[in-house]
Amino acid sequence: MKIEIFHIEGCPNHRRTVERVNELLNELCSPAEVIEVPVTDSASALAYRFLGSPTLKINGVDVEPSARTSTQFGLACRTYLVAPRREGIPSQELIREALLEASGERQTVMIEAQ
To answer: Please, which pLDDT band fits residue 110 given cuts at 50, 70 and 90?
Structure first.
């Protein structure tokens, strides 16, 4: 599993996102390669499909399902919907669901529930 954390320099939420990802990987005993990717200019933002800092992708897929079709790329801060408000880092539950989806476990759980 490949986890990428895209960020702009000075992002106050970058380090907290890295820590949260590592905590969940340890909790789930999930092996993964965590790569921190600095985004330094508009061309990079477009190439990476960067929705703001921090952007977290697992196997190339954004952790926030509602953002996967967004085209609002650029050098900016990002927030994540953590009902009922928005926060600067993805929630544990959002990351956990994305990790399970990427590992195929979420699909298995859904099939078993049918």
So the answer is: very low
Strands (E), the chain: 2-7, 33-38, 55-58, 61-62, 80-82, 85-87
CATH of the domain at 24: 3.40.30.10
* Per-residue model confidence as pLDDT tens digits over 22-67: 999 999 888 888 999 999 999 999 999 999 999 999 999 999 998 9
Which of left, alpha, beta for 52 (phi over 0: left; psi -120 to 50: alpha)? left
Which amino acid belongs to residue 48? Y
- The pTM of the full predicted model, rounded to 2 decimals, is 0.87
Q: For residue 54, what are the domain limits?
A: 2-113
Q: Which residue has the tokens 């880092």?
A: 89
